Records
---
Amino acid sequence: MFQGKIKQREEFGIPSDVTSSNKQPNAYLIEIRSLSNYIISILIVLLSSYLFYNFANGDTVIAWGREDSFFEWLTGLFYFISFVLLLLTYKKKWNIFLLLLSLVLLFGAGEEISWGQRVFGFATPEEINKLNVQHEFNIHNLVVFNGKYMNGELKSGLARFLEMDMLFKLFTIVFGLVLPFCVYHFKFISILAQKVKVPVPPISIGIFFAISWICLKLSLSAIPMEKDIRHYWRVYMAGPEIAEFIGSYIMAIICLYFYNYRNKNIMGKDFKQLNT
């Protein structure tokens, strides 16, 4: 019987030696150890990205972090990779939530590069141009979803809750942190999640969404003021672009997790419930 439990854990990538002791380790520690490759990968990307932002030359940060440059294209790339991984997982699971999430990520990939506007060189249609803060062919920069009004004034209060950046933050916190926490700790939510078969990301991965945004806030607050205000703001605005890239990478790792476990019964389950 005990050997059977070890074998079942190994099927889900949980090391057998974790269960060899009579004293059961904390379920969260088991999850971290089992998913260590995913976590280390995110740590490397997160640390290297913010070290670059904080210590690289300001002009280099601007060149790599401005619109339509290195980090923005990486963001679009990893959203597209996420889309492909979820689509392949959907072909195995036929799960409507995976399909919907894959389409959202494809939308995110297209939005990041303004649907290839600068690649193919087409102009922004006049009707969109009048409503787009950056005059680009995309939706997330429409005045209703942007953090600024058309005159450049920053939004405040309830108007901020429609900002695409704010909506993304809320989604990642709910999806990456709140959902797995509630599925694992609240039985009625766990039953509901398994009934509707919602995909549940590991909280040990999802928590990096919050860690990244905290690192961004700390990094932005540490930028020294310059006499050249324009240069200062260009460095400042590179930070959110880098954070968006990190967010897309974390999402790609979550999608890789779903893909790698596509042959297992994981829908509606938190990682810590896979062996129960």
---
Amino acid sequence: MLGLFVLAAVLLWLNHQTATRFSPTISAEALIRAAWLILLQFMPVLAGAFLGAPLVARELENGTARLAWTQEAGRIRWLVAEVVPVTAVLAVAAAAIGLELRWLLARPAWTGPGTWSPARFDLRPLPFAGWVTLGICLGVFLGAAIRRTVPAMAATLGCYAALLYVTSLWWRMHYLPPLHRPLPHVLVGPEYSYGYGIPLTSGPGDYVLSAAPGRPDGRLLTSAQLDHPASWFRLHHIRLWVTYQPGSRFGLFQVIEFGWLIVLATILMTVAAVLIRRRAA
């Protein structure tokens, strides 16, 4: 697993060196960049399934953990010695890769989904390190609970995927209450047609959760009112009401996500320690 992190770091470094020399317009390069992002996205769950889950489950399944528990090192000390060094090394490696990737994603060659998109937000230094830490601790916890290597690996993959899915598609955008404000309705076309748009901003930008025409007091239009001509919209001063997360919260959301990931990882490790401590030596 550490080799995968090293490989990804080397690939990112090579692209860092070549990006300033060549115009990245070849489609093959775009495919390679996409493959790197996908590889990085899989690293936390692979770390949990193939490193965290077998770390304890294999010892319990084979009975070799009992020998360690009868030595001078106690069960908790044995668990810490097994998990903490590996987790710390991979978390630091993930943060370093995230820093390098942040530089690459800022280049024109890496244009693609917005900064708020899960494919990019998850790979920021703090969230990436947090997800790697959680992946390993989740694997350790399930390994201690199930005590079988292969089932623990499968459970780690499933639980991690479910948590990442819920976080990326819903929970992340509600770390803080979204803002709600109107935008002028200015895009009026010929023959009673109308439309609206959201201005683009530099930097992380705003993440728009919803947008709908409404009255100045915030009441949204009904389906029947949407069929009115453009003159009716101008007469009633219709605005576009946008619900969004401002770009100024982008860094704060990374800190929030890293915080709850570390808290959850700590809880899982604590429960795993309790389970191991209760096992008969």
---
Amino acid sequence: MKKTVKQVSVGITALVISTSILSTSAPALAAEYAAINESAFIASFETDGSKEVAEYLMESGAFSISEANEIMESYVESEARLVESAETTSDDTIYVEIDSMFYSTTNLASSPHYVAVVNSNMNRTFRGSLDLLFNSNYSYYDDYCTTYPTTASYVTKLLPIYENNDLALTYKVEGDTTLSGSQVMCLLKVGVGTNTLSENTLNASISMVDTSNVGGFSKFTYAVGDIDHNGILDADDVYYLSSFLLARDLEVSYAGEYEAIVRYAFAAAMDVNVDGIVDAFDLSLLKRYIQEETE
């Protein structure tokens, strides 16, 4: 069923001005009037999905009505198009098929880039190191490293060894504990070289060697906020992040063999400020990155 949307612009400025005047003379009345304004703002959207996002933005306390309206403009723009092409099941899972390769060969996002190390070998112990090799013409280690998102006390990351533009990360398991399941073990900030013109080039310039001879490790690169991983920060990324914040499940597929890392890349890219939490502040920073990219 085709869904229609209605953008919000008329009346917002007048409401904000009125609220400002009231807040000077009668704070209690101003608060009540502001609540009415927020309710009117939420109700001004036609689809249930857009109303839910607008309500989330207001309840988060992180946005003024004007700031929320800017985010909603992006959400509405993509909702009108993506809802038509995406398949939504009865449990609100959104299935999106992207007819392109996972690493764009033509675009490079302007937001900060990271390389993530993934452990995909289930139920095993390991000890050793992972060597990340950077082609200095296209990428370099940006002197930043953090464990993410595992908090397991039995996994210890020793200090990274950086030499001749390469990096060695040494891991060890304390005792006889085994790791169960797949997880992103580490994020490293990556600098982008002047010769790098696409996400594919950046990813190809970084190689990883597992010197522990255990196997089961892989890596992927991504730009924060580029949730659909196409090398462009735009309204679609706002739609995906907003949907995630409302607890909607997203299942995304790409052309090529990347199924094993897609869900990790999606989750990592949503944490725009890289604080280990996906929340309204990530949405705010994403909007700022989009504005900077289009200027």
